[in-house]
Amino acid sequence: MEKHIYIKELHEILIGREQRQALRLKLSESGNSSVSLNLNIPGFPKNTNYYLAFFEVVYLELKNWLTANQYLIQEEFRLENEAGVFLLFEICGSEIDAHKLKLTTEIFEENHILARFIDVDVCDNRANLISSGKLKKCFYCGEFSAIDCMKNQRHSIEILRDFQLSKISNYLQQKQKVELSHKISALALRSVLYEICLTPKPGLVDFNGSGIHKDMDFNLFMDSTSVISGYFESLFSRGYEFSGEDFSLALPQIRFIGLQMEKAMFLKTKGVNSQKGIIFLMGISLFCVGFSYKKNEKYIEIDFINSIKSICKNLVKNEFKVNTRENKTHGEKCFEKYGIAGVRQEAEEGLPTIFQYSLPLLKNENNLDQISLTKTLLILMAKLYDTNILYRSNMSILLDLQSLSANTLHNFSKQNYRKLLDFCLENKLSPGGAADLLSITIFLYLLENEDNDLPDLT
Ligand SMILES: [Zn+2]
How many domains would you assign to the chain? Predict the structure, then answer.
């Protein structure tokens, strides 16, 4: 086995050890205990980018864990050279029981999936190392103690480092995915909430009332949003993990989660369909955003559009062909009568009404206030062939509503908007499709306008 520890590196280790001990002694003078962190890395160098990235992640995890256990960190010291990074937390308080502190750090290590790569040491207020009395297992074979495998040079440095780097790389990727899915699903939830809270809205449920809907109110939307949003992270994750090789495999995955969301929604609303449309649109959107992040490490509009088109290819033809039963949905009946397929058509074509009209308008407004969002809803109502309108009326009413919406947008005033609200109430119209596209517009606006870059862990 090759000798990897050269004189210079040995020197670094020794210097490192001396510095570490000197630091611990210094802390003990003020009567404080310490917790130190370093990584258990075979060979040199120990400060490559991957190791440093992993160190930073574990450092924050350990710091949170100590804080969660109500230990007060007085100060942090960091030593870094080719022998690796060493970090020391000075724990405030001369009355600290160092053995209890050691138990706390042991729980941290036991719960860490890569515990064998991590060394957490505790020193009491006299700079004495508190030992757990347990010998750490070798992280590679898991059969012997780490010291035993090292002494007997059981595994080559290359094998150990390759093994370690692949585990660390997986860990960091997983961590990135989890952080991103928290972040992106929060944006999706915000978008849905902004749409529901927009008041007043024509014919739709809003904060002030139920519009034309007798079976729904504002609280019902809060309730169903709460239950469906619990699935947002899974949708993002599925997209993030999707290989992109065969897009026909994507829709069943999205539907699989979508059906669970519908079930949860109907259970919560006691059978009222409050958000089937948004479940479909947000489901596909979250999946495609996840896919874009995995592919490009960020959200890229053209990739998003192309993946939606690929996933929803022939959607209208396939969905309406399959269903020959008697109790057809609103959308199916409209398609039969007018050849218009509402949001399904939108999805199949890559959400053109959003990308050509509503998103540019919202970007231009660059605001999520009630006026900007109302204008965004108006442009959607002016452009979309909304099957929610068609189902309750006819083509001539839809065309009237489209032109009234366009006029209201171009001559925007409270008075003109009021006329539109009255028109919808009189004709019992509720532009649910436009409202769903408004949520997606807000979601895409937030994606582009807030810092949603991949957390840089490497
Ligand atoms: Zn071993």
Answer: 2
pLDDT number for residue 1: 38
DSSP letters, 371-414, are: HHHHHHHHHHHHH---HHHHHHS-HHHHHHHHHHHHHHHHT--H
CA 151 – ligand 1 centroid, Å: 10
Selection from 174, 178, 177, 442 nearest residue 293 by Cα:
177
Distance from the alpha carbon of residue 152 to the mean position of ligand 1, in angstroms: 9
CATH of residue 365's domain is 1.10.4200.10
Cα 40 to averaged position of ligand 1 atoms, centre (Å): 13
Ranges of residues in the chain with a pLDDT under 50 are: 1-5, 458
Same domain? 306 vs 440: yes
> Structural domain of residue 262, as residue ranges?
169-449
Ligand 1 center to 162 CA (angstroms) = 14
Look at the chain and count its residues: 458
> Which one-letter DSSP state was computed for residue 71?
-
Question: Same domain for 225 and 352?
Answer: yes
Residues with CB under 5 A from ligand 1 (ion): 138, 140-141, 149, 154
Please report whether residue 160 resides in a domain. Answer: no
Q: Look at residue 107 and tell me if it is in a domain.
A: yes
User: pLDDT, tens digit, for every residue of 21-48?
Assistant: 888 888 888 889 999 999 999 988 888 9
Distance in Å, CA 119 to ligand 1 centroid: 17
Q: How far is the CA of 153 from the centre of ligand 1 (A)?
A: 9
Identify whether 30 is part of a domain.
Answer: yes
The residue among 155, 178, 204 that closes a domain is 155
Residues 174 and 72 in one domain: no
CA of 141 to the centre of ligand 1 (A): 4
pTM, full prediction: 0.87
Cα 158 to averaged position of ligand 1 atoms, centre (Å)? 13
Beta-bridged to residue 36, according to DSSP, are 88, 121
Digit-coded pLDDT (tens) for 66-114: 999 999 999 999 988 877 899 999 998 878 999 999 999 999 999 999 9
Would you state the pLDDT for residue 361? 98
Between helices 232-241 and 157-197, what is the axis angle to 10°?
A: 140
In a domain, 441, yes or no: yes
